[in-house]
Specification:
By secondary structure, this protein is of the alpha/beta class. The protein has two domains: 4-151, Resolvase, N-terminal catalytic domain (Rossmann fold, 3-Layer(aba) Sandwich), CATH 3.40.50.1390; 181-254, no CATH class. The chain has nine helices and seven strands, in the order H-E-H-E-H-E-H-E-E-H-E-E-H-H-H-H. The protein has helices at residues 4-20, 42-56, 77-87, 106-118, 136-169, 194-208, 213-222, 235-243, 245-254; strands at residues 24-30, 60-67, 93-96, 123-126, 131-132, 181-183, 190-192. The strands form two sheets. It has a five-stranded mixed beta sheet with strand order 2-1-3-4-5, sandwiched between helices. Helix 4 crosses helix 5 (136-169) and helix 7 (213-222) packs across helix 8 (235-243). The longest helix has 34 residues, at 136-169. InterPro entries: DNA_bind_recomb_sf, DNA_bind_recombinase_dom, Recombinase_CS, Resolv_N, Resolvase-like_N_sf, SSR_resolvase. It comes from marine sediment metagenome. Residues 23-171 form the Resolvase/invertase-type recombinase catalytic domain.
């Protein structure tokens, strides 16, 4: 009978092997308008992914499929499943027929590369584009993608700062109008929005009556009251309105 120490060592070995087991997952996608195009059918993609993994001696455990889905956003069931598995560290290799099967938007691809594949040390393979990030050339390409993502963020920040500076130089406000108001055509002054002001008064009245931020947000959501941007209410949004109550009093008295 094995000793307790031997059993413990065997258990640790099994756990380590389980943690180290990170197989290859394939991903295939076709949009409705691509169904009839030669070479992009789901069967063709899956066949090429399997052949690639066999040639590369990769253990392919599954090919996840999104059928009739556009590549313009990431909200696809199979892709979300793939990304969640990658995030949990369950995947070592992601195999696609072409990179545009993941997404057709460059910024989305750059984000996936930097925030997921590079961060989690996941190898990305594109069959038709001969991209294999387990090779020095492939790693260089992936790192280049990461550098492009960083440059894009910096350019966006630079454009934002430049736009803000332009507004300040011209005496224009640099923030959006709060709930209850909108900017007029010249942006120099705000004009009241009666329907939104009713919501402001209601929020402040409920708060003065002892309502919590979360409770007020929940009531508004349950009644289908739209927020400033048409989304859901949150406790932080209610808190911001309450903290601005003196500002509201001043501007409402002067309007």
């Amino acid at each position: 009978m094995p000793s307790t120490e031997a059993q413990s060592a065997e258990s640790r070995t099994t756990e380590a092997q389980h943690r180290a087991y990170r197989p290859a997952i394939g991903y295939a996608r076709v949009s409705t308008d691509e169904q009839a195009r030669e070479g992009v059918s789901l069967d063709a993609q899956q066949s090429r992914i399997r052949a690639y993994c066999e040639a590369k001696d990769l253990e392919l455990v599954e090919v996840l499929v999104d059928e009739g889905r556009s590549g313009k956003d990431l909200k696809r069931p199979a892709l979300q499943d793939l990304l969640e598995r990658c995030g949990r560290g369950e995947v070592a290799h992601v195999i696609v027929w072409k990179l545009d099967r993941l997404t057709r938007r460059t910024r989305h691809l750059l984000s996936l590369v930097e925030d997921l594949f590079l961060a989690r040390k996941i190898e990305l393979h594109s069959v038709s584009e001969s991209l294999d990030t387990s090779t020095p050339h492939g790693r260089f390409v992936l790192t280049l993608f990461g550098g492009l993502a960083q440059m894009e963020r910096e350019l966006i920040g630079e454009r934002t700062r430049s736009a803000m500076a332009h507004l300040r130089v011209n005496g224009l406000p640099t923030s959006h109008a709060p709930l209850g108001f909108r900017r007029n055509g010249s942006r120099h002054r705000m004009v009241p929005v009666p329907a939104e002001l009713e919501t402001v008064h209601r929020i402040l009245d409920r708060w003065r009556a002892g309502g919590s931020y979360a409770g007020i947000a929940r009531e508004l959501n349950q009644e289908g009251v739209a927020s400033k941007r048409g989304g859901r209410w949150h406790a932080s949004t209610i808190r911001g309105i309450v903290q601005r109550r003196d500002w509201y009093a001043k501007h409402l008295n002067g309007s």
